[in-house]
Amino acid sequence: MRSLGLYIHIPFCLKKCNYCDFYSLPCTQGAQISEYTDALLLHLKTQSHLYTDCVFDTVFLGGGTPSLLSCDDISKLFSALRENLNIADDAEISTEANPGTLDKEKLKTLKDVGVNRLSIGLQSSFDSDLKRLGRVHTLSDFEKIYSLARSVGFDNINIDIMYALPYQTKSDFLKTLDYVVEKSPEHISSYCLKIERGTPFFKTVDESSLPSEDTQYEMYLDMCDFLAKNGYEQYEISNFAKQGKRCRHNMKYWLSEEYVSLGPSAHSYFNGVRYSYLPNLSDYVSIIKRGAMPKALTEESVTMSENEKRDEYVMLKMRLCDGLCENEFKSRFKNDFISTYPSIEKYIKSGHITHRNGNFSFTPKGFFVSNYILSDILFNN
Amino acid sequence: MDEKQKKIRNFSIIAHIDHGKSTLADRILEYCNAVSKREMEEQLLDNMELEKERGITIKARAVRIEYKHKDGEEYVLNLIDTPGHVDFNYEVSRSLNACEGALLVVDATQGIEAQTLANAYLAVDCNLEIVPVINKIDLPSADVDRVRHEIEDVIGIVADGCPAVSAKVGLNIDQVLDAIIDGIPAPSGDENKPLKCLIFDSYYNSYLGVVVYVRVIDGTLKAGDKIKLMSSGATYDVVEVGHLDAFGLQKCDTLSAGDVGYITASIKNISETRVGDTVTTAENGASEPLQGFKEALPMVFSGIYPADGARYNDLREALEKLQLNDAALSFEPETSIALGFGFRCGFLGLLHMEIIQERIEREFNLDIITTAPSVIYKIEKTNGETIFIDNPSNFPATDVIKTAYEPTVRANIITPVEFVGGIMDLCQDRRGTFKDMKYLDATRVELHYVLPLNEIVYDFFDALKSRSRGYASLDYEFSEYVESNLVKLDFLLNGEIVDALTFIVHSEKAYPRARKIAEKLKDNISRQLFEIPIQAAIGSKVIARETVKALRKDVLAKCYGGDITRKKKLLEKQKEGKKKMRRLGSVEVTPEAFMAVLKLDDSEK
After folding, report:
1. Quick check: B551 and A372 CB within 8 A?
2. What is the sign, positive or negative, of the torsion defined by CA atoms of B590, B594, B596, B602?
3. Which of B552, B560, B583 to mutate to test the interface with A (most CBs of A within 10 A)?
């Protein structure tokens, strides 16, 4: 059976964080969220016939803030998923969660419906940072939720953190890392803050308050070092895991595997087509209620050419520390890797990429300038 | 004098930029019913798109207007339009020579400006009768009396009772017509003398060949006549003669003394019909040409390169086409290590250069990279040889130079009093020699400086404007070559000389300028994966140094919930940006970096 990932977007937050440019709306009304959950279920029912020959081995609830769903909504959603889709017994089922929106009951509900991986957004161990970022929780909120999660039996937890925050020093960041490692989660995602156009930070953050490029680079290298020493293997530019605890759902993205999705702004890759749904909640809900064709929901849909598939494959594979295997590339695209992308050689010489045992991968310093290098190597047609 | 000539008035309109010359021309045409309002595109005489936008007339045009005066007589008015800018001074003076008088338009809110004066002096030199016209009297800040006095005091012509008009709203245009008929003399040539025509403009038409605009001074001319151009001796058979009205060429039988019209004679190349040359008959022609002919010589040079090297031939075609109608534009192929194949182009001045660059980009849709403008240096070498250098890269090493000379200009700057200090600082900074200062009235001053041309070709005009909040005006003319201590300043990126950045500078200015340009380069070269040293050097001696640090961070850390397309688009966009870069040895530089280093004045910061 063909294996597939499922992504479900929950486009609500108590309050939008100052740096976030994902599609999500501030919401405190349970009724609106329930209405949305009903729409998701409806959408799921109209789509399920497409996936009769597929088995879903990963499910990921992302957002927004999936932990804003009420216990009832969670139960409804998961029973509908199991009713309409063929979900593997050993599927990885992840939910993103904000410490400000969880309690013991909800954690229990999540555990009961089969969620087996929790991804908690912490971002920083300093309350001053949390405040500046516009997070709705404090460090002690996190502390509580983390131990509750452990106590109800979650044994696969990711902690999200960020670096290169305004006014953050290298030692501040090391303290956050210390704190996180102390908690001993199975997985750590650590993202470099990017000031996105259209976010409050774009207007309010003064360039000079951010760590310099050089400092950011050092933060990154220090982090890779520190986490390695503490038993976290880096497997992607921003992701670290204990043995066997990589995020299987995210791995699908990087391995150019297929996944489908539900929810406004959500992206899918299915039958060689990359498509996304409109980033508009009310349109999404009303189109589904009307029973309109999926086409009306679609914002963008691209059928990938062989060259596009190939370039994307390289772009995504090279995000992984395992890198890209020449033989696999050759059998997949019938072409030699180096002769397809000859300009890669200068980056091997300059020490940004290693070529070892038939495998190409970025070195840590290469990772940190990977856009520069990939944009040079790829997209030559 | 014959009856026909008595009824002709040949005149130009001269003015400072934006004082309303073209609008007044439109109103005169409209008033005389030469065009109806409906037919009239705003500012009919300026028919290049660029002219309309800039509000300047680049090439002279002429138009014949038939006008029935209030005395009941029919007159022929030939309005000869002139370029309004100093770069085209020579062309202006030729156009003026085709006239007996000129309307001097002065803005009632601004008063006399630098080009008002320069043009008025040119008209006086050509023995023209000057009729002042005070324009824009509809504006609230108009001060007609003050401007009248200014004209009388500064230029020394009677302005009492001169027309005060609003060309924009069409007020008092009849008074202008009266002034033309009464104030400007009729021509007084002799149609029985040998033919003498002054060429004041020409343009290339793909059906007719070169169309030559002439003023007939003496004699008569008709189709079939054999004519001779006196500077070259070349002869042609006249195919057609005629007049120019507001709608184009109107064929006629003969042109005779006093007339303004055109000639076609299957002439292939505009460079054969130089403005200022005299046309006569091939047999029994005039013995002496009209005075004052000279070839317009380019004073400012710059390299022009296609941004996309593959479009070299398109660039050549564009320059060839532009040259068809602009004999003052010169170009020849050159090669730059940094920029590849391109052309060294010569221009009359800065405005001429800007106009050509803009026309290449706009009319031919070509992206170009231009190098810093340069002037022609004269070098006496130690071996006795004298050479002229129009490309800074060819400037010889110090040890073979006996004496170097650079061109200077006489600059005339008019400014409100409060900006005098800043402007004098600027001129001082640009190695100017102060000549004198004159108060035009209590609030405005005229400054005279001699300035090296190479100090004003970069950004002098912008600097002048920014130091005077846009009020100061500038006019200059070539003065002479003077001995100067010049050095060649090279810039090296990652150890390699970038020839397109080389320029010539006075030795006293070498250090500060080298530092400034090195800084600008540092700010404009994007970081690459390795550190890039920037060095400024005179010969082998490095006099300034900067470093572009290595790129450390260019990464997309986030996961974006499976939004692969966004990542890809971002990288593709980055790729596009990279394609526009020029590779200089191992360093990639954006075309903008070349331009940015040209702006030297920081007074606005």
Report:
1. yes
2. positive
3. B552
